[in-house]
Write a structure and sequence with these properties.
The complex is a heterodimer. Chain A is α+β, with helices and mostly antiparallel strands. Chain A has one domain (3-185): OB fold (Dihydrolipoamide Acetyltransferase, E2P), CATH 2.40.50.180. Chain A has helices spanning 3-24, 81-84, 161-164, 167-185, and strands at residues 26-34, 37-42, 46-51, 65-71, 74-80, 97-105, 108-116, 118-126, 130-131, 145-151, 154-159. Chain A starts with a helix and ends with a helix. Chain B is an alpha+beta fold. In chain B, the strands form five sheets. Chain B has a five-stranded mixed beta sheet, sandwiched between helices. A five-stranded mixed beta sheet of chain B has the order 7-9-10-12-11. The model of chain B is unreliable at 132-158, 297-301, 537-546 and 716-732 (pLDDT under 50). The chains are: A alpha+beta, B alpha+beta. Chain A binds chain B through residues 54-61, 65, 67-70, 72-75, 77, 105-106, 110, 112, 167, 170-172, 174-175, 178, 181-182, 184-186, and chain B through 352-353, 355-356, 359, 595-597, 635-639, 675, 677-687, 690, 692, 696-700, 710, 714-715, 717-718, 721, 723.
């Protein structure tokens, strides 16, 4: 599926979401790949999906913050989720793209871009099909996981967006990065 | 949206409204004091207080309501001509206005209101309210001060009505207080026969805005009753205090009806309805008049009022008042449409989008050039220039007149001149000069300091002025004008001027300059801006602590402005601020480090040179015989992009020091629209914002001050290594 199609599905899904919710008791999620692992984010948080473009690096930020991009005149920070989860930086491929999400912080909504390897599809997951995160065994910090859902090809990790993209925490990382940057240069 | 949000939003609206109304009150009071008041002023003054009281009541700010009510009473008496303005009264009312402002902000912030001060002021006001007791012999009963029930004096016949006329406007919150307006009307039935009830629905909001828990309607009641005024009053004894209740006895004078018409604030109530509602006319009489208006098929049908007077149904004075009110309402509505309030975020969003349009247009133009289609190129460049025009217009939307800041100074000058015992006049010109809203907010404090300073230090005492043949009344002039993309604001006084010798002496005494320093007059004047400098022999309440001028200088520099001082001994001093029109756009100097683009604010850039070779182990270079420390941005920022074999040095000036920034490429000057980077990058030193370049790339704006400061402090900590030498030289 091309990114364009996904974007259209996202829009359609957002429009029809209410009805679906009532009829089947499920919520819609955007599923994407990061390395070989499948993740999902609730569609309510997602604003759009845009093509990958080289971000402008901001000095003295930790590696999980790739930099900033120009999103139709707005300057949007971009997070490398792979690095955030402790893996190597995402390798840029043909299907790499930015998932633009909205995160609430200090009474305002902020827009963040996430680098993902591939966007899969918009899927409906019933709340009954979501299992609590395993106590151990997941490759990422279990704090970041809202739950696990079974799909045709194994499990999908549903991310806790507020926790994964906590602005307060990312900003502290930024401070740590700035401090280490200072030490590094000195 | 939850109720808390709604409440907070409504509170915000209330605060803003209260601020505007208080500012209006102040303006009117100052005008009255200067003797330049107009007839419109007194009702306007009353309305201000009345509206504040009403809105405060909705939020349950009891103390504001209690206090404003007393003020309102005095203003009402002023309006009715029962008392006149005196200098003393204006003074007390100005204090009251300040106190209301204080109450509103304390209570809104959740603080405890200063009730003692309220009582103090209420006691002062008593001189003007108490006069009522003596003069108002006609008033049958002295009502408690807190009661809002007004009773008009009864008099001889005037209008034809045989009935009592009651005009009821209940407080919007009356239902919440457990009272139903209907009960009052029912109860009224026990005092007599209700002849007619007119429901006033002018204040009904639209259905989706309506709050079903508020009372939006008012009533005009005609009552046939043998009861006395006191008995009818008693019906409304428990009505919330911000209800507006007027009771007119049968055969009231026409003037009392006029008073009633003026006190009602229904906007679009048509003349006829007002008169019917007031009981001056019966509905039948109105019908007849309306028919007469329709029948007279002239090109310009006479106004309804004229017909009513012609047919002898109402006295001309009553109609005159009603027509006047109708016209005033129309005028008010017209002036309201001249400007509109728009949340600044919406403007910012528009400006963002238009900026993007400019970039997209430039992209299209570049494509057209690429494929070498002459006609396409032409239309693309036309499009681009139109879009750029739109961007300029959009930026202009954020501009407001500087008069918004100036308007608070007449009061300051009045108060300060009294405190100092000097007679000083403030002259304002150029209040219509515009600058960005965000600048307007920040320029107020520095100007306040300058004006106080001019009054305190600049203007001499009256005896000194008289002795030197100057007019006793001193003048402080505030002038604004545009000059080549900047705004110039001058604060000029006709005082004694600066005494260069005394300043120099003082500066040497305080150790600000070395003894025997050879300074030009200009340089000496600039010394008054140094921290810890004050020439005043005595420390007054206002100035003389030596904290003013250097703070002003810092504030102005933070706004990327400059401050010049001009002075002629014996004739006065002029302080000239030159500020950019906006903080949203800067002139930037575009450089490249690796593959990243950076912008250095142009006003900090002194010059550019090539980095001399053979400096691999040093971070300073020789420039015109002086050691110039520099920072290699490539290393500092950890850039790995393509380097340049011949790096350049951008020499910047900051706080009187010079330093170099080593970059790979220099692109040149560009206009930069600043975009904030958001909370994620708050902690990053040395980058203050970002911008989008013509080709859509994001460039980071370097905060030169922080960058240099950071390098200096870092080298204080680590005195070893290559960077240390350069920075030590910088710190020295």
């Amino acid at each position: 599926m091309t990114n364009d199609m996904v974007v259209r599905t996202v829009a359609a899904a957002r429009r029809g979401n209410d009805n679906d919710d009532v009829s089947s008791g499920g919520a819609l999620y955007l599923a994407f790949l990061l390395g070989h692992e499948a993740y999902a984010i609730e569609i309510e948080c997602i604003r759009e999906i845009v093509e990958y473009s080289e971000p402008t690096a901001v000095p003295m930020m930790p590696p999980s913050v790739c930099g900033v991009i120009n999103l139709r005149g707005g300057v949007v920070p971009v997070i490398d989720l792979a690095v955030r989860f402790g893996a190597d930086p995402a390798a840029i491929g043909r299907r790499t793209c930015f998932v633009i999400v909205e995160v609430a912080h200090a009474g305002a909504v902020h827009v963040l871009g996430l680098v993902v390897d591939r966007v899969n599809a918009v899927t409906e997951i019933r709340s009954g099909d979501i299992e609590p995160p395993p106590a151990f065994g997941a490759r990422i910090n279990t704090d970041f996981i809202l739950g696990m859902a079974r799909s045709n090809d194994g499990f999908v990790i549903i991310l806790n967006v507020a926790r994964t993209l906590s602005m307060a925490e990312l900003a502290t990382l930024g401070k740590a990065g700035a401090d280490s940057g200072v030490l590094l240069a000195a | 949206m939850d109720t808390n949000d709604e409440l907070a939003e409504a509170l915000g609206v209330f605060m803003e409204e209260a601020r505007e109304l208080l500012a209006q009150m102040e303006e009117i009071l100052l005008r009255e004091e200067a003797g330049g008041g107009s007839e419109e002023d007194l009702p306007a003054l009353f309305r201000c207080a009345h509206t504040i009281k009403g809105s405060a009541g909705m939020f349950g700010f009891d103390e504001v309501v209690r206090f404003t009510h007393v003020v309102e009473n005095v203003l009402d008496r002023l309006r009715n001509g029962a008392i006149g303005f005196s200098r003393q009264l204006v003074g007390v009312l100005l204090d009251c206005q300040d106190h209301i402002a204080g109450l509103v902000s304390t209570i809104a912030e959740g603080g405890t209101p200063d009730i003692a001060r309220s009582d103090e002021l209420i006691a002062e006001l008593r001189a003007w309210t108490a006069a009522d007791d003596a003069a108002g012999a006609a008033a049958p009963r002295q009502l408690p001060a807190e009661s809002a029930v007004r009773v008009a004096a009864s008099g001889g016949g005037g209008t034809g009505s045989d009935y009592w006329h009651l005009s009821l406007r209940f407080a919007p919150g009356i239902l919440a207080e457990g009272m139903d307006p209907m009960c009052f009307i029912n109860y009224l039935g026990t005092c007599g026969r209700i002849v007619h009830v007119e429901t006033i629905t002018d204040h009904l909001p639209t259905l989706d805005e309506a709050d079903p828990e508020l009372c939006h309607i008012g009533f005009e009641v005609a009552l046939d009753s043998p009861a006395g005024k006191e008995e009818i009053e008693r019906v409304f004894q428990f009505v919330a205090e911000n209800s507006h209740i007027v009771i007119l006895p049968p055969h009231s004078k026409a003037t009392e009806f006029i008073g009633l018409i003026e006190s009602l604030d229904e906007d679009s109530a048509r003349l006829g309805e007002i008169l019917v509602a007031c009981g001056t006319l019966t509905p039948q009489e109105l019908d007849t008049a309306l028919r007469a208006q329709q029948q007279s098929r002239q090109d310009t049908p006479p106004r309804l009022g004229a017909i009513l007077v012609d047919s002898g149904m109402v006295a001309p004075a009553v109609v005159g008042a009603a027509i006047e009110k109708q016209q005033r309402n129309e005028e008010k509505r017209r002036s309201e449409t001249k400007s509109l309030k728009v949340p600044s975020e919406r403007l910012d969003a528009l400006i963002d989008r238009v900026g993007e349009l400019v970039i997209a247009g430039a992209g299209t133009h570049a494509q057209a050039v690429k494929i070498q289609r002459r006609d396409l190129q032409e239309s693309a460049s036309l499009l681009l220039s139109l879009v750029e025009d739109i961007r300029d217009m959009a930026l202009r939307l954020r501009m407001v007149a500087i008069g918004e800041v100036f308007s608070r100074f007449p009061r300051v000058v009045r108060d300060v001149s009294r405190e100092l015992g000097k007679d000083i006049e403030l002259r304002i010109s150029g209040a219509e000069a515009e600058l960005d809203k965000s600048m307007v907010e920040k320029v107020g404090d520095p100007l306040m300091h300058l004006i106080r300073n001019s009054m305190d230090h600049g203007i001499e005492a009256a005896e000194v002025r008289a002795a030197s043949g100057k007019p006793v009344r001193g003048t402080v002039a505030l002038n604004a004008c545009h000059e080549s993309g900047a705004i110039i604001i001058e604060v000029a006084d006709d005082g004694g001027g600066l005494d260069a010798d005394r300043i120099l002496k003082k500066a040497i005494e305080k150790g600000i300059v070395a003894e025997g320093a050879n300074l030009s007059t200009q340089e000496i004047y600039q010394l008054i801006l140094a921290p810890g400098f004050s020439t005043a022999e005595t420390v007054t309440n206002l100035s003389g602590r030596g904290v003013g001028m250097d703070v002003v200088k810092n504030n102005v520099e933070a706004l990327r402005g400059t401050l010049d001082i001009d002075s002629v001994p014996g004739q006065g001093t002029t302080i000239r601020l030159c500020l950019p029109l906006t903080l949203a756009i800067i002139d930037g100097f575009h450089v490249g480090v690796g593959s990243t683009h950076f912008i250095v604010p142009l006003d900090m850039v002194v010059e550019c040179v090539e980095l001399p070779t053979g400096l691999d182990h040093f971070d300073y270079m020789e420039q015109r015989g002086e050691a110039l420390p520099f920072v290699r941005l490539r290393q500092l920022f950890g850039e790995h992009g393509p380097a340049h074999i011949r790096p350049r040095v951008v020499i910047v000036r900051f706080a009187g020091k010079r330093a170099g920034l080593v970059v790979d490429r220099i692109y040149g000057k560009c206009q930069t629209v600043i975009k904030p980077l958001g909370p994620l990058f708050e902690q990053v030193p040395c980058v203050s914002g970002s911008t989008i370049l013509g080709d859509g790339e994001v460039a980071l704006i370097i905060d030169v001050a922080q960058l240099i400061q950071g390098v200096v402090t870092r080298n204080w900590q680590a005195t070893h290594g290559g960077t240390a030498r350069g920075a030590t030289a910088l710190a020295a």
